[in-house]
Design brief:
The protein is mainly alpha-helical and 364 residues long. The protein contains twelve helices and five strands. It has helices at residues 25-52, 58-79, 86-92, 98-106, 110-113, 121-143, 149-163, 175-186, 196-217, 276-298, 337-346, 348-355; strands at residues 239-242, 249-252, 258-260, 308-317, 324-333. A hairpin with a 6-residue loop joins β1 (239-242) and β2 (249-252). The longest helix has 28 residues, at 25-52. The protein is elongated. It starts with 24 loop residues before the first helix and ends in a 9-residue tail after the last helix.
């Protein structure tokens, strides 16, 4: 009897060879970005727990958390569509890190989210000025119809940081809404846009704490210049704006003028209407011409009937102080230079731009 033995063949595995998880450089970068994102979330979790346990103080925690949040946002952009949301990513890899999840949803360190620090009145006045500027910048962004996450989130984050500086601000009406909007914006992709209804809700959410800022802190903005106050009022114009802000309407209360407003195409609007910059240009040009004529009359100087004043009014981001600002360029055609320069010191519009004016806010 002959016995035949068969030998089984097994694949040969080289244990020293590299196990490749990717086939292209793009895939390699994607996996590396996801691994970095994973590490950032884990680091945030440990950082949050260390701060809660007083293992590190606020001075150590705040910059470390801010840096991790910045790195998180960068990596979230790099991973792109492979990570639809941080919740999905954490669920995919069974990451049980609730403190880190809350932190990336809010987008600011806990020291800012829950701060109730307050110092002397001089420092408080500075904070009020800076926070008011942040508020104006954010509201301008909404009024200018900026709707993308990467346009609104940094501005809202800056406003939240400003509110957090004040004593008892955690109890301010509407502050919790801002945290909710930070979470909503954080969950969006950079190019995603909020709806018009969300924009209105966000605006209201930002306004409520700003009222508390003025009413509860009882501090006033220190003026950097002496503003013009009226000793005697000669005439008052009354106007009412309604509707969608720069895309709504404005009219004189006596019914003599009713204007449909529309943002210009350069600002994302339809351009099918007038805008505040145009109305300001009309008023400034006519007022300056009147001032020029008054100066010439007082000096017994001859002024041609063909003299014209052209006003160019621009809106854009302000240098240094941030937010949006107005720029004006006046051109006098057919007038003596000396008269024009003196008119600039007389014209009420010129004076309000150079010296400022007292503005009283009434809330009904």
């Amino acid at each position: 009897m002959t016995t035949t033995s068969a030998r089984m063949q097994f694949p040969v595995v080289d244990l020293d060879s590299e196990a490749r998880l990717y086939s292209t450089n793009a895939e390699r970068e994607k996996y590396e970005s996801q691994a970095t994102l994973f590490g950032i979330i884990v680091a945030l979790e440990y950082l949050e727990r260390a701060y809660v346990r007083d293992a590190i103080n606020a001075a150590e925690y705040t910059p470390a958390c801010t840096r991790l949040l910045s790195q998180y946002k960068t990596m979230l952009k790099l991973v792109g569509d492979s990570v639809p949301s941080v919740e999905e990513f954490m669920g995919r890899y069974n990451m049980d890190h609730p403190a880190a999840l809350h932190r990336v949803q809010v987008g600011v360190p806990a020291t800012i989210e829950h701060s109730s620090e307050q110092q002397g009145s001089a420092e408080t006045a500075k904070w009020v000025a800076e926070t008011t500027q942040s508020f104006i910048t954010f509201m301008d962004a909404l009024n200018l119809r900026l709707r993308a996450k990467d346009q609104l989130h940094p501005r809202l984050q800056e406003l939240m940081t400003g509110y957090a500086r004040f004593k008892d601000s955690a109890k301010w009406e509407g502050r919790g809404k801002i945290v909710s909007w930070l979470i909503t914006l954080n969950a969006m992709k950079a190019s995603d846009e909020i709806s018009e209804d969300q924009a209105r809700q966000t605006m209201l959410s930002a306004i409520r704490p700003s009222i508390n800022l003025t009413a509860r802190q009882s501090v006033f903005l220190a003026q950097r210049r002496t503003v013009i106050s009226l000793a005697k009022t000669v005439y008052t114009a009354h106007a009412t704006a309604s509707g969608a802000g720069r895309n709504g309407s404005t009219k004189l209360d006596d019914g003599s003028l009713d204007i449909k407003l529309a943002s210009p195409k350069e600002m994302g609007g339809s351009g099918q209407g007038n805008n505040p910059e145009q109305l300001f240009a009309l008023g400034y040009a006519s007022c300056f011409l009147g001032a020029l004529q008054l100066v010439a009359k007082n000096k017994n100087a001859k002024l041609s009937d063909d003299v014209k004043i052209k006003a160019a009014v621009s809106i854009g981001e302000a240098k240094g102080s941030g937010g949006f600002g107005i720029g004006v360029e006046l051109t006098a055609i057919g007038a003596d230079a000396a008269l024009v320069h003196e008119a600039h010191t007389v014209c009420p519009y010129s004076r309000i731009l150079k010296e400022g004016a007292e503005v009283k806010l009434n809330i009904q």
